[in-house]
Amino acid sequence: MFRNLFKSRVEEDIKVRTYYSKYIFNSHFILFLSIAAGVLLYTLLGLRDDLRGNIYVDLVAAILMSVSIMPVYRSLLKEADVIFLTPVEKDLGNYFKSSRVYSFILGIPIPLVVSVIAFVLLIINHNMMNSLLIILTFYLMVIGVFALKVLAVNSDVSPTIVVYVFIVLNTITLFLQMQNMMFALLGIVFYLVAYIILKNKTRSTIDWLTQIEHEKQEQNRFDTIISMFANVPKREKSFKRRNYFDVLMKKQNIKHYNQDHMYDYLFHRSFLRDFDLPMIMIRLFILCSIFIIWMGNIYISIIFILFVLYIMILQLQGLYTAQAYLLWPKIWPVSRDKIRNSYIRYSRKLILVISILFMIVFICIHPIEFYVSLIFPVWALLINKVFSKNVYKKEEALSD
């Protein structure tokens, strides 16, 4: 019975992931990732002799591996389970065992990809055998952090704190191991102590409320990641006022607050008041800027800026679908063409501002090739135009 229960739920979850994967890993995105990976690998191999002996390469590899260990634990429990499954709690051993296996498989792809990148970095300063031993230690850490997180979910200890603490400890352990292989023993001590502590704090019975709440958090985390690439209808949209953005809330001119320009203001307000969209944009800009400054390679700079602009423009589609179908069109009915025109005007302004910021960063890094930065606004406007048409086509297909 319970085997079939988990089977039905995991099939449903896989179906959802498969559905969104079609939109994320489309041919354009796969082509871009392939080119980006090739350029990155070519650049690292080309810089191998220049970077040899640089201790910061080891530090970057250690941080990269540690940050990638963000295990997923999906119990796939639902709120009603606290009523219907509590009486048969003792018979759910296979259910939770299957959920742990499925969760571990979900969290494996990113560490596998990162291990390849880390290996390329490691062979710059280490021989083949030592590099493989470090990667083996990394894989053991992936298993260890996952096991500790599962224990923490059913204890008074926050799983998030456990993961973040071990990001720091793993970074220290891996970096020290790169200097002397014997420091791998230090990592074993960390994990043994943490396991004993968490094992003693783990409840003997299932904490249903905690398990269900954790499942909600993991589902929201998944929806947040997917929303960066595609619209997630079931995701609860919330808004937040940030006082430091108030300076950007320009008072609307009365003569412009009509059916032709009303949505310009509403799109702008929705963007600044969105719970996560503006912060996602800011984080993407900062992370991309830090990465291209650190790499210093013109080809990597171009590819990653184009990639981040691609992701940002994908995010903006949510503004149209969220605002265009809210209560405003019912209170003040306007034609869809006017809403679309407002979105086009606002999205163009926003992506031009973002493109200019990237141009400034690029020119500061590569002043001689400043003219190359002109490709950023052209790319952004072109991608925005293509994505906007796709949104309108979907809207027309759903219209009566």
UniProtKB/TrEMBL annotation:
The keyword Transmembrane is assigned to this record: yes
Lineage top rank: taxon: Bacteria
UniProt GO cellular component terms: membrane
Name of this chain's protein: Bacterial ABC transporter protein EcsB
Transmembrane intervals: 23-43, 55-73, 101-124, 130-150, 157-175, 181-198, 277-296, 302-328, 349-368
Pfam families, per the entry: EcsB
Keywords assigned: Membrane, Transmembrane, Transmembrane helix
InterPro entries listed in its UniProt record: EcsB_ABC (IPR010288)
Organism: Phocicoccus schoeneichii
